[in-house]
Amino acid sequence: MNYIKEACVETLKQAIRAEKAGADRIELCANLDAGGITPSFELIREVKERVNIPIRIMIRPRGGDFTYSQEEIRMMKMQIKYCKTQSIEGVVFGVLKRDNTLDVKTISELAKVAFPIKVTIHKAIDKTPNIMQALEQLSMIDSVTTILTSGGRTTAEEGKKTLRGMIELAQEKLEIMPAGSITTANVARLHEFVNAKAYHGKRIVCDFYD
To answer: Can you point out the beta strands (E) in 65-117?
Structure first.
């Protein structure tokens, strides 16, 4: 089965182990207990020096909701600019309005700062009231390449019908990357139903969290 396995990691040791275990790409975060925030610049640099597979960096100034202040948006732009200096493949972020609809204006601003590196919109999209409408909005932003999602549910397995619908709607415009409790044990079975090009998980190639 030909699909990309993206491992979500939060340390240098995990990043190295993920590559050795067969990950095709990593998403580097800090504090996954809070849902993942931006890792330190030092860790980004260390992982870039030691890992040969593509790296995407979580850009999130804090845990909690996805509605950010102007100061937090300024910080996110600074973090994205740093990632570009390190030749990172892409960045991962998401911004919502107070009603949980996408903040398309801010997402567009951040994507413009990120260009030409890749932009993934993370599971903030799962909080939106109409995930298909949100997908259509994101498809209009040229720099957005990937959507990381559980199909609006807690796990990819629960949201698999929506995930398949999102893939059909996105066609070749966007990569829909299922996430949410995807492991070595269930990724192949999920792929048979969803047929995505990439899958994401903390335990997608090995279990760092025994």
So the answer is: 90-93
Closest by CA to 175, choosing from 24, 36, 11, is 24
Give the span between the Cα atoms of 62 and 38, in whole angstroms: 8
Rg (CA), the chain: 16
What one-letter code names the amino acid at 118?
K
Q: Of 204, 186, 156, nearest to 6 (Cα)? A: 204
Residue 49 vs residues 21, 46, 116, 130: alpha-carbon distances, Å? 18, 5, 21, 40
- 60-114: per-residue pLDDT in tens? 999 999 999 999 999 999 999 999 999 999 999 999 999 999 999 999 999 999 9
Residues 6 or more apart from 133 whose CB is under 8 A from it? none
* % of the chain with per-residue pLDDT over 90: 93
Please indicate, yes or no, whether the overall pTM of this predicted structure exceeds 0.70: yes
- Which structure tokens are listed for 155? 């796990």
SS3 51: coil
Please give the Cα distance from 111 to 14 (Å, whole number). Answer: 28
